[in-house]
Each structure stands twice: as C-alpha cells, then as structure tokens.
Specification:
It contains 11 helices and 8 strands. It is an alpha/beta fold. Strand 1 and strand 2 (about 25-30) form a beta hairpin.
Length: about 270
C-alpha cells in the first residue's frame, strides 16, 4: 500500500518555528492567518504511535489549510519513544509545556487564548485529550500542572483514546507498553494518569472524528470512549466517517476534511 501523500510531500513552511524549551524536540511551528486578530488557535499534535521516526512535518498541510480558514495553528513537536526521556514522562511533559507556552506566544502574537482548540491525530489524539484532562491530576502526582491552559474543546482524529484497551489490542505492535514502560498490570498508575479514558470526565467539550475503515486504530475505541464520556457527564460527540481510513482525517484534500473543519468550528 502506498504512503499517504501527506507523509511524502513537504508541507508549506510555517511562519516561524519557535522553541518552547531547551531540549532538541521542544519546539512548535506557528502559522498566523491574515488580519489583525486576535485569532482563534488550534494546537495540533501529530501522531505516529509516539515513535521517534514520525515528526510534525506531515501535519503541516492541515495546519496550512486551517490557517487559510482564519485559525492560528501551533503545531507541537515533542520527545517520542526512541528519544532520551521520550514516552513516560517526557512526551507528556513536552506537550503540556508546549501548550502552556501559548501564554508566552500571546504576548508577541495576536492569539485569542479564550478560543483555543486542541487537536491531535492518532497518538496525537491521545495527547490532545490527555491535555484537556490533565487538570484532574492532583498535586504530588506525576505530570501534575498547577495551572494548565484550559481549551474550549478538543478534536480527536482517529485517536488512541484508551491506552489500556490499545495495549490489549496490541496496537502499533505493542507500542503502548514501550510508551508507558510496562503493561497495565506492571505500571497501573501510568495508565491511570496517562490515558484519557481513565481521566474521564474531562469537563471539556470533545469531538471524536474516526473513520469506520480505519485498520490502524479501530473506530471501536472512539465509540466506547464517547459512550463512557457521555455517561459520565461530558459533552462528547462522535463523528463516524463511513468510508474513511486512518489518514483521511488529516488530509485537507479528502472529502471528509469538511467534517474536521466543522468539528473545530463547533467548539468555538
């Protein structure tokens, strides 16, 4: 099967690449729409099963499209499995720090921090939802952030929304065990603190967009998550894309892209 074009085609360059920390992979790509602003912001977190070989380049295409539609986009890079301290806890620490860095960026760029949507694809969908729920972590627990930036909502695109179930299904050839440093039986606290499904209810609006023909991350993960989130009181909507596979949800040329754009707009 051929690679999706986004993985092979260089993305339009960002307006600027900005470090949010001192470590090599702690940076983001900022794109700003025309006009004075302040602009609504989409924080984009790329996927790739948290592995080092997949970087943020391929989601530059969707970021450029959203920016043309009037959204500032802040696409995060972060340490991944294969990098020093990648996985537990570095990956979580980086996306948290990068998201909260919006407060610093807003001092220099016309960003509306009252209209922030978090969005992620695949493993990035996991991280986007986790970012929305990290405020539930208590002081003294790993990954606790005293004053996390609170988004208006989250869009999960084919997200790995439940790490325990993803481990059971052996998604990514066992990557969840590598990512968290053990199985649910070996490191149960990491699954409790690091999985969006375990943090429910998040208290933030959520839209889960998932292709029914996805054979990399099954739509059943999003279906079960959405049902539980709703039962626990969250506002969580599932958008099933009947003919879509795993990468259609990040393809601005795909017919399904309009529903991704609608999902973002619905949260603002």
């Amino acid at each position: 099967m051929s690679q999706p074009w986004m993985l092979e085609t260089p993305a339009p360059p960002a307006d600027t690449r900005i470090p949010y920390g001192d470590i090599t992979h702690q940076f983001g790509d900022l794109r700003l729409p025309r006009g004075e602003g302040p602009h609504p912001v989409v924080v984009m977190i790329h996927g790739g099963f948290w592995r080092a070989r997949y970087d943020l380049e391929h989601v530059g295409h969707l970021c450029a499209d959203l920016t043309r539609r009037g959204y500032a986009t802040w696409s995060l890079e972060y340490r991944r499995v294969g990098h020093p301290e990648g996985g537990w806890t570095g990956t979580f620490e980086d996306v948290a720090r990068g998201t909260d860095y919006l407060r610093t960026l807003a001092r220099h760029y016309p960003l509306d921090l009252k209209r922030v949507v978090l969005m992620g694809h695949s493993a990035g969908g996991h991280l986007a939802l986790w970012l929305a729920g990290r405020g539930r972590l208590e002081a003294g627990e790993p990954l606790h952030t005293p004053t996390p930036l609170v988004p208006r909502g989250v869009v999960s695109l084919a997200g790995v929304v439940d790490l325990a179930r993803a481990h059971t299904l052996n998604l990514g050839n066992g990557i969840v065990e590598s990512f968290l440093g053990g199985t649910p039986a070996q490191v149960p606290e990491r699954y409790r603190l690091g999985s969006p499904a375990a943090l429910l209810p998040l208290g933030v609006k959520q839209v889960l967009v998932h292709g029914v023909k996805d054979d990399i991350v099954p739509v059943a993960l999003s279906e079960a998550y959405q049902a539980r989130a709703t039962a626990l009181g969250d506002t969580a909507r599932l958008v099933r894309l009947e003919n879509a596979e795993h990468f259609a949800v990040i393809d601005p040329r795909a017919a399904e892209w309009a529903q991704v754009v609608e999902a973002v707009g619905s949260l603002l």
